[in-house]
Design brief:
alpha+beta, DNA Polymerase III, Chain A, domain 2, 7 helices, 13-stranded antiparallel sheet, 26 strands
C-alpha cells in the first residue's frame, strides 16, 4: 500500500474514527484502525475503519492519490499522535506499507509504525451485504441529515449513563411509514421527538419497526454528518443498524457509514409516562429561561441539586431560587409570555432543564404543570416533548 493524502483531512478522519476504538483491549488489533487504499474508480481512495466490536465506523477520503492499493492495520493512538505532530505546513503526507510496518513521511519528518496482519482486524458489518443479503432488512429509508440529527440531538442527551436496565442506555427509534420517532429516558426524565419523512416512504413497505440504538453510535452521527440537506440512509436488520451519509447523492459510495449492534431488551412504555391532565400552561422565552436557570444553578451542589421555581399567574412572573449550605442562596426573576392557570411552586434539577433547552432552537417553550409532586412537561414546537420529574428540597 502506498498513498499520498491530504494531512488535515486524514487527521480529521482518524480522530473521528479513533473515537470509537477502545483504549485498552485484550485484542491488540481492536485498538487499531484499518486503512484500506483502492483505486478511485472503485471505492474512492482511502477508507478508515474502526470498531469496538459493537459500534463501527468507516470514513472514505477522496483527497488522496493511491499509488498502490493495499490494507494497513495500525494503532489508533499512535497514528493520531504521529499525524498531529507533523508540521501544519505539510499539506500532504505519504503512507507506505512495508511488510510489517507503516512508514509515514512529511516533508521533514519520518515515522515508522508497527503494522498488524490484516487478518487480525475484527470483521465489520457491511452495508452492501445487508442490502443484498438473503434476509431483507426490517426497514430501509432515506432522510435528510438535518432531520436525523434533530431527532438525535433532542433525545440522546436523556439516555441513562449508568444503570442495570440496559435498554434505557440507548434511544428508541420507531419508524411507521413516513412517521419517524426517537425516545430516550434515564428514569427521571424522558425526551421524545417526532418527524415526518418527505418523499417516498422508503425501499420497503413502510411496516412499523422499532429498535433501541446505543447512544454511542448516535453520538457518532453528529460528528460525521456534514451537509444538513444531504441524504442519510437508515437501514435496520434483525440485530444491527446502519447509517450511511451520501454527500453527493447515492450514485457514489457513502462518505461515512456508522453501524452498530442493537440494544437488547424492552424499552419502557413511555406513552404512559407522558402526563395528559395538566391544568397550568405557561409559555416563556427559551433564551431567558436558559439564562435564569444557569444563574440559579450557580449556588447548587451535590447535596442540594435543585432549583425552586415559583410561577406567579397574576404577574406572569417566574421566581427561581436556590440554596446550598455553606455556599449561599440566589433568587432570579423573569417575565413570562403567557400563563393559563393558578400559581404553582415546583422544584427541578436545573441541569435537566438546561440540557433540554440547549437541544431545541424554537424561541419559546411551553411548560405544562399539574402539582408540585407531579412531573412537568416541556414542549417546543409540535414535535418535541420533554417530561421531567420534580425534586424535593428542604425549606
Amino acid at each position: 500500500m502506498k498513498v499520498i493524502a491530504d494531512r488535515a483531512a486524514l487527521l480529521d478522519a482518524v480522530n473521528t474514527v479513533a473515537s470509537v476504538v477502545p483504549p485498552r483491549s485484550p485484542s491488540p488489533a481492536l485498538s487499531c484502525l484499518k486503512l484500506t487504499a483502492s483505486k478511485p474508480d472503485k471505492v474512492g481512495g482511502l477508507a478508515v475503519h474502526g470498531t469496538d466490536a459493537e459500534v463501527a465506523i468507516a470514513l472514505s477520503l477522496t483527497q488522496v492519490d493511491v499509488v498502490q492499493p493495499g490494507v494497513a492495520i495500525v494503532s489508533a493512538d499512535r497514528l493520531k499522535a504521529v499525524l498531529s505532530s507533523i508540521d501544519d505546513a505539510d499539506a500532504q503526507v505519504t503512507l507506505e506499507l512495508d511488510v510489517d510496518s507503516l512508514n509515514i513521511k512529511g516533508s521533514r519528518s519520518r515515522f515508522r509504525l508497527m503494522a498488524f496482519p490484516a487478518a487480525d482486524f475484527p470483521p465489520m458489518a457491511d452495508l452492501a451485504q445487508a442490502l443484498a443479503g438473503p434476509t431483507p432488512p426490517r426497514t430501509n429509508f432515506i432522510a435528510p441529515c438535518s432531520t436525523l440529527l434533530r431527532l438525535v440531538g433532542r433525545t440522546s442527551f436523556a439516555t441513562a449513563r449508568e444503570t442495570s436496565r440496559y435498554a434505557i442506555n440507548g434511544v428508541l427509534l420507531k419508524r411507521d411509514g413516513k412517521k419517524l420517532e426517537m425516545v430516550a429516558t434515564d428514569g427521571r426524565r424522558l425526551a421524545l421527538c417526532r418527524a415526518t419523512l418527505k418523499g417516498p416512504a422508503g425501499d420497503d413497505k413502510g411496516a412499523a419497526v422499532s429498535c433501541i440504538v446505543p447512544g454511542k453510535a448516535l453520538g457518532l452521527l453528529q460528528r460525521v454528518a456534514r451537509d444538513p440537506e444531504a441524504p442519510a440512509r437508515v437501514l435496520i436488520t434483525d440485530n444491527r443498524a446502519f447509517f450511511a451519509f451520501h454527500d453527493d447523492g447515492e450514485a457514489k459510495p457513502a462518505r461515512a457509514v456508522v453501524s452498530t449492534t442493537l440494544v437488547e431488551g424492552a424499552f419502557p412504555p413511555y406513552e404512559d409516562v407522558i402526563p395528559k391532565d395538566h391544568d397550568r400552561r405557561i409559555s416563556a422565552s427559551k433564551d431567558e429561561l436558559a439564562r435564569a436557570i444557569r444563574q440559579a444553578s450557580v449556588l447548587t451542589n451535590e447535596e442540594s441539586r435543585g432549583v425552586r421555581m415559583n410561577f406567579v399567574a397574576a404577574e406572569k412572573l417566574l421566581r427561581l431560587s436556590s440554596r446550598a449550605p455553606e455556599l449561599g442562596e440566589s433568587e432570579i426573576e423573569m417575565g413570562l409570555s403567557g400563563f393559563d392557570g393558578a400559581d404553582i411552586e415546583i422544584s427541578f434539577n436545573p441541569q435537566f432543564i438546561a440540557e433540554a433547552l440547549k437541544a431545541i432552537d424554537e424561541p419559546e417553550v411551553l411548560i405544562e404543570l399539574k402539582a408540585s409532586n407531579k412531573p412537568g412537561l416541556f414542549r417546543a414546537g409540535p414535535d418535541f416533548v420533554y417530561v421531567i420529574m420534580p425534586v424535593s428540597l428542604s425549606s
